[in-house]
Amino acid sequence: MNNHKHLCALAVMMMVGAGGCVAVCAQQRMSLQSLFDLADRQSLRIKVSEAALKAAEEGVASAKSALLPSVEFSVQGSYTGNAFLMSRGFSTSGTTEYIVPGLGPQQVPNGKQPTPHWGNTFTAQVSQVIYAGGAIRSAMKMAKLGQQLAELDVEKNRQEVRFFLTGYYLDLYKLQNQSQVIAKNIELTEKVIGQMKVRREQGTVLKNDITRYELQLQSLQLAKTQVDDAQKIIRHQIATTIHLPQGEEFEIDIQSLEEEDMALRTAISEEAWQQIAAENNIDIRQAMLATEMSEQRVRNTRAASLPSVAVVAENNMFEPYNNDLIPKNANVNVWFVGIGVKYNLSSIWKNKHDVRKARHENDQARESMQMARESIEKDMQANYTNLLTSSVEVQTQEKQVELADQNYSVVKNRYDNDLALLTDMLDASNMKFSADMALVNARINMLYNYFKLKYITNTL
């Protein structure tokens, strides 16, 4: 039987054996998917990344607004001081010849001139950029890529929270199974102690023999207490992550794990897992977006070396008119429409370093993307191998449990017929307990490796 078939066959037996270890409880059963749904709504880690996503969405809207015309309006009130007319020698005495339209040259006395003091200015300007070297389009593209990165960050946090919950869930499942195994061994040990007490009354067993089993019983009871306390810790960690109300309890949903078992039984090949990871892994997708963003940054940097062209329209109304020799108390309205061209000549020798820097960052982003692909490929290969290894471990532990049960049965029968020593019974009992616990751990480990493959492919 090849590894894939071997894995499928073992998975069929895995949940069948484990299902009998967990008692049915009256408390609410909660599947992994139920935990995931609660975490999606209530996890603070996910909420923080969702807030960042909303900010990124506003960033896209802000970048798009650069395509809209710019409209400015200003109002200004002022007080104008007295105007003084002076000769070329800065004298305020005498007169100055002043040409008045329609009247010809006129002699105006130097000194203080009649001046309207209160003034106002109303200005309205509309401009529309029609060419900016691609800077606006590039900024919009970068904002959209930033939004996509924020979306992936939300999904990445969601996947990480789900993986943490999966680990807690499987640990809780393992501890519950261990608790059942320990309880069965406690029950078996108490039964043996009861039988030995009867035999001691008959004079066939020493007090020391009973003491040894009582010591073993104490060790089992301590182990059960430790396992039960560990369950309380994990339950608190789960409740904190998904913000369950204080005191609310839940039980493992065995049926949901059986459904995962069905998926495990149809586990696909390593090549298929690798393909899923290449298409869905968030680290790879983020690296691809980072590469696209670095390419846009190169374009945006180049745009700084290109001229920008804009259509401008302005209307300006002001009073008084003080651009003549003698200010006039009148409102003057001026408007114009034109095209403005702006070009920073110094960018020819200053911007080249920024362009080179952006290109190097783009090369770095490409290498980082390739490195992410290689890292995921190695992780997938290692964890798929671990899954196959854990399947062999399950088979081995099942065989050991079978042998340990047979050995215990034989040794107990011989001990009951005074053909074996108490130490043989203790060894057989300890071997059975160790084998049972190892099988529980192996089964959970196999499920964990399967979920880890789903986590690496970000399909939890």
Describe what you observe in this structure:
By secondary structure, this protein is of the alpha+beta class. The protein contains eleven helices and ten strands. It has helices at residues 3-19, 32-42, 44-64, 135-201, 207-242, 254-265, 270-280, 282-303, 347-350, 352-416, 422-456; strands at 29-30, 70-79, 83-85, 95-100, 104-109, 111-113, 118-131, 251-252, 308-319, 332-342. The strands form four sheets. A four-stranded antiparallel β-sheet has the order 2-7-9-10, with no helix packed on it. Strands 1-8 form a two-stranded parallel ribbon. It has a two-stranded antiparallel sheet with strand order 3-6. α1 packs antiparallel against α6. Mean pLDDT is 83; it is low at 1-26.
Secondary structure: elements and pairs:
Layout: H1 3-19, E1 29-30, H2 32-42, H3 44-64, E2 70-79, E3 83-85, E4 95-100, E5 104-109, E6 111-113, E7 118-131, H4 135-201, H5 207-242, E8 251-252, H6 254-265, H7 270-280, H8 282-303, E9 308-319, E10 332-342, H9 347-350, H10 352-416, H11 422-456
Parallel strand pairs: 1-8
Antiparallel strand pairs: 2-7, 3-6, 4-5, 7-9, 9-10
Helix pairs in contact: 1-6, 1-10, 2-4, 3-4, 4-5, 4-8, 4-11, 7-10, 8-10, 10-11
β-sheet strand percentage? 15-25%
Unreliable spans: 1-26
Described by the principal axes of the CA atoms, the overall outline is: elongated
The DSSP helix count reads 11
Radius of gyration: 42 Å
| Secondary-structure content class | alpha+beta
Q: What is the number of strand segments?
A: 10
Q: What average pLDDT do the residues reach?
A: 83
What is the ordering of alpha helices and beta strands? HEHHEEEEEEHHEHHHEEHHH
Helix content bin: 55-70%
Biggest sheet character:
4 strands, antiparallel
N-to-C CA distance:
30 Å
Strand order of the largest sheet: 2-7-9-10
